[in-house]
Each structure stands twice: as C-alpha cells, then as structure tokens.
Design goal:
The radius of gyration is 36 Å and the shape is elongated. By secondary structure, it is of the alpha/beta class. It has three domains: 137 residues, 3-Layer(aba) Sandwich (Rossmann fold); 153 residues, 2-Layer Sandwich (Alpha-Beta Plaits); 195 residues, EAL domain (TIM Barrel), CATH 3.20.20.450. An eight-stranded mixed β-barrel has the order 13-14-16-17-18-19-20-21, surrounded by five helices. It is 50% helix and 20% strand.
Length: 581
C-alpha cells in the first residue's frame, strides 16, 4: 500500500539528493528537496513534513543549526529528523543528539536499511499524529475552548456519576446554575474581547472558590456556568458556597485597562429532593436562577415546586410579549403634572401599558423587567418615545397649550449608543419642539456610567441638552442621591420618589428628607417634581416647601389618550388645585 507521508530531503550535493530519490521512488512517498539550511527551514515551516533527512555538512547553515532551529519552533518540535553524514565518529553523533536529532544514517546508503528506517519512522509519526488528533477531538468534545472548563457534555457525564455515587452513599448533591447579571451590557459597552476576558476571570474565580469542595465547575454557554458537588450539610454548606461565589465574582476586575465590576445570580437545585436525574436537576436549577434574577439579581435562590408554575407563566409572558409590539397591544397612558402655585397643567408623564388580550390592562411592573432581560426594551422604548412625541404634537395641533411630555428611558437604551438618533428621529417625525420633551433617567444609570468611560452617557446628555431636550432624574432619594453627579450631568429636574411623599404627614423623617431634597435642588437651580401626591395634606406641605410641580392621584391617575384629551378640554386655563381643594 503506497505511503502518503511527505519527506523533506536536505542535502547540498545533487548526487546525494538523486540517490535518495531513486532509492525511495517506488515507496509512494511525496519527496521534497532543499539544497541548503535556509531553504530547509522555509519548506519545513510551510509543509510540516512527516520526516526530514538532513545532511550534516552543508555550507552556510549546517545540519546541526538547522536541527536546533527546528526544535525551537513549537510547530516543528516533534518533527522526526534523521541526520545523514559521512562522518562516523562518536563526537558528531553526540553533537547531533544534543541538537535534537532522532536518528543517524551514514553515506553511502544501504538501500534496505534506508527504506526500512524511513518506513518505520513515517508510520510511527503518522500513528502519533493520529493519537494527538483523537486526543484533541476528545478534548474539544468535552471542554470549553475559551475557559478550559468542562462543557455541557462532560458536565452531564460527571453529574450522572456523582448522582450514582450519591445514591449509594445517601448523600445530597447541589447543582448551582450561575449566570452573570447584565453581561450583554459589558459586550455592548467595552467590547467582546473584554467580555471574553471577563468570562475567563470568572471561570478562574469559581474554580478557586470551590476547589476545597472537590466540585465540578463547567461552562455551558455564553455567561452560563454550573457548579456541582455532594454534601452532607446541605443548607449550611450550599448557602455559604453560593454567597462566597457571589462575593468573589463581584470583586473588581481590571481587564484590558478597564476597571469592571460584575455581579451574578445563582439558582440551586438539590438531589434527591428536587429531582432524580441530571436533566431535571439542571432544569430546576435554571428555574431557581430565573427567580434569583427576578428577586433583584446578585443573589441566590433554592428551587421549590411552586416555582414551576412561576416559570411557566414567565415563559408564556415572554412569548406573548414578543407579539405585543407587532399586534399593537402596547399603549400609553398619561398622568398630569400640575404647577403647585397656579394649579394649571405644565406637563404629563407618558406611562407604558400592555393591553393584554386575556389578562387585560397590565402595568409595566408586570412586563418591563421581562422586556429588559429579553432585550425587547430597546424597540419598546423607541416606540414609547415616538408615540409620546407624536401624541404631544397632536394635542398642540388641536389647539391645546404646549405641554411638556416626560418619557422614561431604560439603561439598555443608553448603551447601544442609539438614544441620540432615536430622539432625533422621534422629534423630526413628529415635528415636536425639543423643549417639550423630557427624558427621565434613574440615578443608577448615571452612577454606573462613571465606570465606563468608553460610551459616556455624559456626552449623550450634553448633546441632548444642546438640542433643547430636558433631563430629569426619576425616583430621586432611593439610590445614591449624590451631589457630584447632579453637578456633573446636565440635569434640569429632580423627581422625588413617592415613598417619601406617602408618609409626609405621619413620618417626620420623610418630611425632613423631602424638605432637604427640595432645598438642595433649588440650590442647584433644579426644578422639583413630587410624585405620588394623594391628599391635601401632602399638597399643602409641598406647597409650603415651594415644590414647583405636583403629580399624583390627588389630581388624576394615569389615564388614556381619550380621557386626557377630555381633561385638557375641561381644565383649559383652569386650576386643578382650586377645583380639587
């Protein structure tokens, strides 16, 4: 059977090259020739031959130097090299061995010996390569290339083995499904290279954290990891391990000159109480993971049977939410904003609602967190912005006094860097003057930006301000409440969170905090909006503190476009405060 091996023959003498060619011509090898050391190195790198027959004595670069250079190249370090020499002294052979030669032959060649040695070496080399290829295929089938952790295949196999052992020894097995929080924002904000480096770092941190437990850490896909280990002290060991994993992951990382902080969520299922086989336990751990994310992220949750129902409802909601935009099921309600001195309309907040075909009118609390996780908040946010601008302009064209419309902006709308263009398009398409559009951002969106200088929200807000768009901070007082970002960012308005307004007449602390927020805002020349005003006592207090704008059920709940139009007719140039009080 003909050989398919490639043999590189290196010899400066034409007669020697011809002799080898004649002796091996009938063996079926692919013969390649080089006349000097430099040519030998070039062809070896290009061809990666199965064998090199290398003459020792050549002008310029001799065979010893060629051999040394080949051994220094990782791709050619295992290349079989037979050195050919007319020298039969011991020193030359020792020097060749030190240079990395595998074998020696002397000139003139013995035909039978040459054929036998070449045949043996090439077959051994092909066998070695086959073994290496099979080992590589086995590795690829069982390990993740990015992190070198076991992949899904190996995880399932190890989990089955662990469960078999646990069944015999009557032990518990914990399955911890871990997912990074808002990892897509890292990829969008600082790039996939930093994202990959983060995944490697998380893999190392997880491995170090659980090393003392004899646990298996695997990467399933994307930013999904799984940890499995057996335990006798279920609640204590698993809870402590889960919290330790969260703590270690949340420590600051420096990746490609970026200082990054990431958190994770963990779902936990336990053998045998939550399932008897690997697939069920993994499914239940992922169900618990979804519950952990819904609970605010950076936490862990154990699986319970009641969570199956929650997971099913969530799945149904996700599938239906994908159709909500295309089926025109989303709508905007509007809540009036009233001047506390005159009682006249000064603006309104656009609030998203989902007119579900079976569940009725749904508050954003029910579906916006799901839309955030699914990435649907971006197209939904664009629709809200366009619709609010068009409706506001329609009211102006109908002859109503110009009012400001406030629109909430999600953090996910900022990082793809499309907010500017979305705002410009919405204003252009609707014909609305930018002065009558206000964007509401949360404190956390501004604070988190300081760790991400690449896609700075500051530049976005400054350009929006230059256009004439107003910027408001929503739910102020519930987050960082920092003066530094209020001075740094081009903010026009503070909206005091309703939690402080609710107990103004009952809680002295809330009254004091509200007064302090208003005073601070006025010192920075910012307008203050109080949300959640529901009674006359709250209104009177806020008027006394010179809070400029009031919003809440005392005047009106969020209402439909038709009802808002009717209210604009009814209270045209009239005071809602005098009517209500």
């Amino acid at each position: 059977m003909p050989e398919n091996s490639t043999i590189l023959i290196v010899d400066d003498e034409m007669v020697s090259r011809y002799t080898v060619e004649v002796l091996l011509a009938q063996e079926g090898y692919t013969l390649v020739f080089a006349e000097c050391g430099e040519e030998a190195l070039e062809k070896a790198v290009k061809l990666i031959p199965d064998l090199m027959l290398l003459d020792v004595m050549m002008p310029g670069m001799d065979g010893f130097e060629v051999c040394q250079r080949l051994r220094a190249n990782p791709r050619l370090a295992e290349l079989p090299i037979v050195m050919i020499t007319a020298l039969d002294d011991r020193d030359s052979r020792l020097r060749g061995i030190e240079a990395g030669a595998d074998d020696f032959m002397s000139k003139p060649f013995d035909r039978a010996e040459l054929r036998a040695r070449v045949r043996t070496i090439t077959r051994l080399n092909r066998y070695r390569r086959l073994i290496e290829t099979e080992e590589q295929l086995v590795y690829l089938a069982n390990y993740d290339m990015l992190t070198s952790l076991p992949n899904r295949n190996l995880l399932l196999e190890r989990l089955r083995q662990t469960l078999t052992h646990a069944c015999r020894s009557h032990q518990n097995v914990a399955i911890l499904a871990l997912d990074l929080d808002n990892f897509q924002m890292i990829n969008d904000g600082v790039g996939h290279e930093v994202g990959d480096n983060m995944l490697r770092e998380v893999a190392q941190r997880l491995t170090r954290t659980v090393s003392s437990m004899g646990a298996t850490v695997a990467r399933l896909s994307g930013d999904e990891f799984v940890v499995i280990f057996d335990t006798n002290n279920l609640v204590k060991e698993v809870s402590e391990m889960a919290q330790l994993m969260l703590d270690n992951i949340s420590e600051q990382m420096t990746l490609s000159n970026h200082e990054v902080v990431i958190t994770a969520s963990i779902g936990i299922s336990v053998y045998p109480s939550d399932g008897q086989d690997a697939s069920v336990l993994l499914k239940n751990a992922n169900t618990a993971l979804a519950r952990a994310k819904a609970a605010g992220k950076n936490t862990y949750q154990f699986f319970t049977t009641e969570m199956n129902k929650v997971a099913l409802e969530r799945l149904i909601l996700e599938n239906q939410l994908r159709k909500a935009l295309t089926h025109n099921q989303l709508c905007l309600y509007y809540q009036p904003q009233i001047d506390s001195n005159t009682g006249h309309f000064v603006g309104m907040e656009a609030l998203l609602r989902w007119q579900h075909p079976k569940l009725g009118l749904l508050s954003p609390v029910k579906f916006v967190p799901v839309a955030e996780e699914m990435g649907l908040i971006i197209p939904i946010g664009e629709w809200v912005l366009r619709t609010a601008c068009q409706q506001n302009k329609a009211w102006q064209r109908a002859g109503f006094p110009p009012l400001r419309v406030s629109v909430n902006v999600s953090g996910r709308q900022i990082y793809p860097a499309n907010l500017l263009q979305t705002v410009k398009d919405a204003l252009t398409d609707s014909g609305l003057n930018p002065n009558y559009l206000e964007l509401e951002l949360t404190e956390s969106m501004l604070i988190s930006e300081e760790d991400n200088q690449k896609d700075s929200i500051l530049a976005v807000l400054n350009e929006l301000k230059a256009m004439g768009v107003l910027i408001a901070i929503d739910d102020f007082g519930t987050g960082y409440s920092s003066l530094s970002y209020l001075k740094r960012f081009p903010v026009n308005t503070l909206k005091i969170d309703r939690s402080f307004i609710r107990d103004i007449g009952k809680n002295e602390d809330d009254a004091a905090i509200t007064s302090a927020i208003i005073a601070m805002a006025h010192s920075l020349r910012l307008t203050v909006v109080a949300e959640g005003v529901e009674n006359l006592e709250q209104l009177t207090f806020l008027q006394g503190q010179q809070c400029e704008i009031i919003q809440g059920y005392f005047f009106s709940p969020p209402i439909s476009v038709e009802d808002m139009t009717h209210m604009l007719h009814k209270f045209r140039n009239k005071s809602l405060i005098n009517c209500e009080s």
